Amino acid sequence: QVQLVESGGGSVKAGESLRISCASSGSSLSSYAVGWFRRTQGKERQFVGSVSWNRVSIDYDESVKGRFTISRDGAQTPVYLQMNNLKPDDTGIYYCAAKKYGTHFSNLDRETTYEYWGQGTQVTVSS
Question: What is the pLDDT of residues 39-61, one digit of tens each?
Fold first, then answer.
């Protein structure tokens, strides 16, 4: 059973960086694609980026391309979301989600694709 836990959220100023992580307190994430989503004020939860289970594909929403980076180094390590040049519009709750054997062709940008979700971590960016 996969139990996702996000950590590393916090408050920063615009232009600063933050790294949040997604780990499983249950089964390893090695066979799972991991997606990052966020819920910002006044909006529904939106896709941020994803990494396929085999690390072949990493995709990002246009709004974060060039600023955010997803990494996963090994089977037992967390999946990270490195966020650089943060903007106030990036403020929100960030969630990670997992899909077994998810690939680039698994519609990883859709919430309904995922089988497991974390509880979310708050990221606040002030101007």
Answer: 998 899 999 999 999 999 999 99
Task: Dig out the tokens for 20 from the structure.
Answer: 């949040």
Question: Quick check: 20 and 38 in contact, CB under 8 A?
Answer: no
- Rounded distance between C-alpha atoms, residue 127 and residue 106, angstroms: 37
Q: Which residues contact 63 (CB under 8 A, 6 or more apart)?
A: none
DSSP 41: T
Q: What average pLDDT score do residues 19-45 get?
A: 93
The span from the CA of 2 to the CA of 24, in Å, is 6
Alpha-carbon radius of gyration of the chain: 13
